[in-house]
Structures
1.
Amino acid sequence: MQTEPQDHLFTKQNTCAVNLKVNGEDKKLFILPWVSLLDGLRDHLHLTGTKKGCDHGQCGACTVICDGKRILSCLTLAVMKNGSEITTVEGVAQGDNLHPIQQAFIDHDAFQCGYCTPGQICSAIGLIKEGKANSREEVKELMSGNLCRCGANVGIIDAIMQVKDGGSGE
Amino acid sequence: MNNFEYQQATTSVEAINLIENHDGSRFLAGGTNLIDLWKYNITNPTELIDINRIAELSEIRELENGGLRLGAGFKNADTAYHPVVEQKYPLLSKAILAGASAQIRNMASNGGNLLQRTRCYYFYDPEVPCNKRVPGSGCPAKEGYNRIHAILGASEHCIAVFPSDMCVALTALDAVVNVAGPEGNRSINFADFHRLPDDRPDLDNNLKPHELIVSIDLPEKGFAANYSYLKLRDRHSYAFALVSVATALELDGDTIKEARIALGGVAHKPWRSAEAEDFLRGKIANAESFALAADIILSGATGYGHNDFKIKLAKRAIVRNGLMALNPESQLPGAQPSA
Amino acid sequence: MDLNKTVGQPISRLEGKLKVTGVAKYAAEYEVDDLLHGYVVSSPITKGKILNIDISKALRIPGVKDVLSHENRTKLAWFDLQYTDMDAPPGTVFKPLYDENILYNGQPIALVVAEDFETARYASTQIIFEFQQETFETNLRNNLDKARPAKKGFATALKPPPPPPTGDFENAFENAACKVEAEFQHGTEHHNPIELFATTTVYEGKGKLTIYDKTQGTINNQLYVANIFGLHYKDVRVLAPFVGGAFGSGLRPQYQLFLCVMAALHLKRNVRVVLDRKQMFSFSHRPPAIQKMRFGSDINGKITALGHSAFAETSNFEDYTEPTANWSHKLYPSPNTLFEHNLVPLDVYTPMDMRAPGGSTALHAIECTMDELAHQLKIDPLELRLINYSEMDPSSKKPYTSKALRACYLEAAEKFGWSNRNPEPRAMKRGNKLVGFGMATGIWDAFQFPARVEAMITKDGRMVLNNATTDIGTGTLTVMTQIAADELGLSLEEVDFQYGDSKKPFSMFQGGSAITSSTGVAIVVAAKALRKKLLRKAAEMDASPFKKAKEDEVIFSAGKMHLKDQPEVFISLKEIIASNKGKAIKTTNLGKPHMLKLRKYSLATHSASFVEVEVDQDLGTVTVTRAVTAVAAGKIINPKTAKSQISGSMVWGISKALHEETIMDDHLGKYINANLGEYHIPVHADINQLDVIFADEKDDLINEIGTKGVGEIGLVGMPAAISNAIFNATGKRIYKLPIHFDELI
């Protein structure tokens, strides 16, 4: 659909100040309202661990944890999350100590190309925190929003089951 | 794809005032559908009014009449996992959890779920005609690939289906939608909320301009003893329904006192048949009764080629889901057919 | 050298930590100063001409730098040959923004370049095009009258046409005691790696470019860019250390590379171009195919006639071929054969290799036809394969360098519990589910390309290796490190395999399951040369005990060189380098297939897949409840990453059988489900137990390390095994993939 160029929208008045706490650090973004949280993280904060796979909420690669819940950063405008706490894959480990899910992913060879991996990991952490998945079947169902084109599905679910049952998923 | 201004509203009144004063503005809640449509250049808002911080929309509370009020801004996942919903309205819980993915359910609002647009391929492609997107431009789905399209209630102008799972359960449960608007507040019975395409497929529902969904009321009766949601699709999760069925039964021994059957994935709105439900009243709850009811529900169904299978599939799904409702524990994650 | 062997050990991916922490950077993720962002505009029409482009509105948008199209593009290479890449099929290469002609829907027709991504994306909607549309043809079946054999060209070497007929097929088929005639149909599939195709071009000035690109071939893309834009190849550096999946789509340079480089040169700026998901459906794909099968046997199941005629889509400008009709006779002897592979040119982009190209399509048809033959003969499907088992390659009449397919059959059947199968369809039930068992054979090439490796020992006693290959998720880094570590008796931590960079010594693109054998052999050759140099250096040292030692009289272990017979006599590699004044000792060597020797042999990997499905008896929904695939692929360097290659391929097999299809609307001439919501690949809920077995297959002939490659073989047998299991469950044989569950009710 053709519309008239909206030059007036590229002005300072339309720029939004967005405060985010990302991986424990306060960040301030000055962005136009149409910048997605995903592009805000990747292009503006240079946190490229969060991946763009479809940009339409269909693959889960952009999953981040926002105020304790896993969400899709591609379908979220950054401006909507002013004041929120965001955890990306870069903030999951404690310094050099990998999060148990990260270590389990390595141990179970739960990835190949690695591109869907940050989304799978953030989603898995969200899943364990939600506490709604008891069986392997439920874990699979509740992880189904994260596609893996390499077909590492079995390793991913094995890794999550190990951490979930080991009780160290927080 | 156009650019837009952004404003936050903190009360419903403020939100409605804002939308009235700006042509082309839209309410923004979870964004899971609106942002998607905007990126695809299908919806072109000039201003987004963020309603996520309106406290009154985010409540969930029990009503004096024994029902439950779901705030329009309350999230789908929070609704599905809310203890009262799980205990009293498990059909709704199951239906919500059959839709989308965990992440999207964490984002999507209850009000927004009602306002989802169709997933018709042609609607989603701004380069091709579509009467729903550009009235009068045509409907390539009729002659094209229509595996996912409607078998009931379609018109010559549009054969798209409404994609929600949650709304199939809300239809079966006789929910009521409470809206606020410039002309005041009103309530709409769920059956009257969405509409069939007729000659205005661009209109999905009967909301008036600038009206805001405030909440959804569930009546007292939740059918927690005998219910089931079944969803049939091309993969086991994270796909839209080809056919889905919400069944809620009230039984007296083996006899059906009341039956509610709503279908998703088959029409421009969740589909119910009063005639079929009347037929089931007093019948023995078994495959034979459900099959006869299914024949009634699908009596006016028409396929468009690729989706002809939906008629037979829907009938069988109604039977299976009726049997699953007799034994709700037989339901599996992802609303898959019982083992 | 037998101490601390890493080859054969299940080593975790060495880059694992970088991937699970988000540190690994992909093509669109390099932080570059003053970066401009390009957004591609795609053709909304399928065939015709661009009559006019009005970019004035787009140019007025603040932040827009330029809009490039065929009207204002920079002067480019003139000859087709200069656009040719290493994987180009015969024909005329597609040249982006070359002229006003539209050859297919989604063709790139302009590039908007702006200060930020969002502005470029917005401006892309503000360009006004005028088109003249022409009629088009996109339907394979409706155009079978145009079928013809493929033109021959460079690519024919890797994809030979089917062998000529043998015996008297028509007569033999007509008179066969048992015969099966069937037609199979496959739709279009797109690779859809989760990483979007992307290029970041750093404009270095003085005609120099550094390019971060999503590709399976750094040198392929380096030469492509240099040839087209008239740059010296040494001034073009293509880097791809991490590739977010490719599956064949990165074997040829894709148009975002071309557009990104053009914009960088035109604007003399750093530029990034990332495709969107819809545009990921606007280049290569697996072609739709129709296959007509005619197999005949005697009453005992011995095959007497093999007929396989394939018709596959190609574009109107290149003749893409995938091997289909070549496979059945490599497995099953038959005195009478008739094989054809014909192309039907349509108004689409040229198809391209997609994981197990040809093999996965052909073996579905071949192995379903075999299953039907077994059913009609009332012979167990596994037994029928064994009746027709051949130790040698019947089509070339050459022996295989190795073939452990029989072990695959037997070990997988045992693990699966095949003996519990009831051959009668619909006979096995579990509650509401019909249960079916199915099996199928897989066969795939065992390619090796020439590769060059630089290897050195540095002053800290570490080994550094350089090769231009990528690691698209296959585990190349880990596997190469293992091979190198064992060759020099080092630990994995002491080896740095550096890759993903066109500046490094030659590697072909990473395709055809070939890189382990290609770069791996080059490492072995280089390591040998390196050991020789180290020995020579050590021998030169004062009072060296190695003065008279020959190459086979020393061993390398734990960072030291020892005399074989007197292991207590040793010198550390560090000391050798110190005696070289601290200068690294290095060598660069070529590894290549032993063509002369191997001409007498046939080379292949094999597999056997066994699948259990549950099909809902009323609703038709299908679940692959478990599957076992046994693979014979020579030596397995790393059983952990190799297993992932196979189980990942098995997921692809499930996807091909039950899920993925790109839907072409022939009225519109375009794909209508060009997104990951409606182009279904399996989700976690679709995947259940997948078991992988590696059959013991020692191969001293094929190459120095005895490897054959595991990237594709795991996919080949799965679609047929699933289809055959569905037949066993339901009695319905579905000839079209993917199988829609509603076809089973």
2.
Amino acid sequence: MTDVTKTFTLRRRTRGRLRRERTTLDAVDGVSFTVPRGEFLGYLGPNGAGKSTTIKMLTGILTPTSGRVRVAGLDPSRSRTALARRIGVVFGQRTTLWWDLPLKDSLTLVRRLYRVEETAYRARLAELTALLELEPFLATPVRQLSLGQRMRGDLAAALLHGPELLVLDEPTIGLDVVSKATVRGFLARLNAERGTTILLTTHDLGDIERLCRRVLIIDHGRTAFDGDLAALRRTAGADRQLVVELAAPGPPVELDGVPVTDVEGPRQTLRLPDGANAASVVAALAARYEIRDIALRETGIEEIIARLYRGDR
Amino acid sequence: MVSDPTAGDATAGDATADDGTVGEGVVPDGGAKTSAAPARVVTTYCLLAWTWVRAAGQYPVSVALLALGTMVTAGLDIMGILVLFTRAPRIAGFTSAEVLFLYGTSALSFSVSDIVLGTTERLGERVRDGTLDVLLVRPVSPLVQIATEDFTPRRFGRIVPPVLVLAFALPRLDIDWTPGRVAVVPLMAASGTVIFGALWVLCAAVQFVLLNSHGATKAITYGGAFLTQYPMTLFARDFVRGVTFVVPLAFVNWEPALYVLDRPDPLGLPGWTRFASPAVGAALSAAAALAWRTGLRHYRSTGS
């Protein structure tokens, strides 16, 4: 009630798993960030970067080795149960539902465990059923659900108690295009209409481009980037790529200030630096070489992030 | 489904300790519920147990067969003891009724604790495959969630043999039933249950750190159950000291039984130790709660 903002102030250093020879691993090494209420934050990083570890510290599963974590004003590891009532957590890789129970029973059980009032529960269930199209499989045991159905069921279970914050660990992993769209559409609505703060980790950049206002990239346990998508594009340089197809395969074309990044038979890829004039480069090329085809590409978010992961900025 | 009140207490005691992490937080709305916590834990336990019973209800035949199997296995234990007596009239100075009394009280305590907390031994598995994470994001003690996992009515099959044995042995004991003795019998069953319950939790807590300690901890729980079924005089003296002072198994039934059966203590311990079982149970529960909380804090989860 009194926590004015949903503020995570994290400054922590986690000694991750203790490996066999007692080498320590800093899974998360001095990461700090604050997420205001109503934010939609995408949390990115290569495998093993410390994303899940962060999520687990935020939800109280893991106790940070050092540093301070506050979620909705609570210390997750000390007040895990109290916090659990105020946040929703969805793991894309494992369900929180009861395997042998029909979805509907699982949801009823969640209601009891979270002590959700009957009337509030009915209203929310009706709403979630409509939005996530749960109706056709409410009576099906969870183990018989498809991955997409199960994920929708998990989302419903995580939201029945009306959490202020929803934490999703790879919610779209393994989903088909249609299910992904449903889940994304639902999350966007939840954030926009309910004002639910959402924190999502993903490897699917479509999730990020379509949903997240803010992106936080973590690598080797440290923050590599924190800002919105536009800023991310700027950080990595707004390079564009020019793909030219020459009449015949040959050595890389030589043009001042426009390096060739890839040669594949007659097709060569050139990197247009920030602010370069594409038209004049094309003209210069056409004057010196015989060109069959030409294409100009914006650097995709994927490429930008790959560069960040590799550490060349 | 009638739950034994003592068993309920055992769970409540252990699990609230875990909930205590909430209570001691500075959050006013989180701490306010602490007083209602024990009752809450029991209701949650029943709710979850019932959920699993219903889930298991999808396969009624297998439930019935397994319940039968459980009873037969326990029945074989008793057969073993009876066979012994066909060879010798006494075991370590105890008559058959007396040994069956020891067996019955120990087996009753153990099976009740097993019903309530037995599945906590699977904690290591859940830690290894990472599914403990899921339990930890729910606002319910993970101990209660693990204890109720796969709860099936067949677990109650385990109580039947000890109850039958006690019904057989109690009237055949050649003792003067003073009010004190009558009172000690249910008390020893209750504190025995608490001691075993605490051992389950302790063993589970160890698995937070030593994932594959499942086999070793089994020796303490199941081994303890087996051990206390026989008179301690059967075992070497140093061994008895070990189970008295290190893993306080002697307090499950041996010490109070010495009082009930009016026997001297082979270790020569003072008279009050015959009545120390409830205190030992409480102390061990506190230790178990502490170990559980420490274990939970050191939980490392899995990758991803």
